[in-house]
Design brief:
143 residues, alpha+beta, VC0802-like, Alpha-Beta Plaits, 2 domains, 7-stranded antiparallel β-sheet, 5 helices, 7 strands, globular
Length: 143
Amino acid sequence: MSLKQLTIFVENKKGSLVNITKTLADNNVNLRALSIADTQDFGILRLIVNDNDTATKALSDAGYLIKMTEVVGVKIGDQPGKLSMALDVLDKADINMEYLYAFMARTEKHAYVVLRVADNAQAEKVLEDAGFHMITDADVDKL
């Protein structure tokens, strides 16, 4: 039930993000969520997109190093404390989170949170058992 996330290694120099986003736009790939972490020499760009196969091919053809990763997507209410509740569920189940980022849906009053954990199935189960709804690539396609 997990989401597919693209991770792209990017040189930390002027124009790098423009080139990536232009490549995706030229191939009709729509960004749904993104996160970037940088160091002095390179960045790690994480993307949720509407078409993983097209994005992967286009970026690979453009010379980018890409990795596809399975991540957990959870739908939470867009209210103070809701993220903390979801994180508390994972903490109580002794699930360590490597990173997270969030994005808003255009029409719903929910936030979608992308979580990277060691065991997606376990994280999804404890979150669902606590009343949270998981999101899938099909849900992202509807955004």
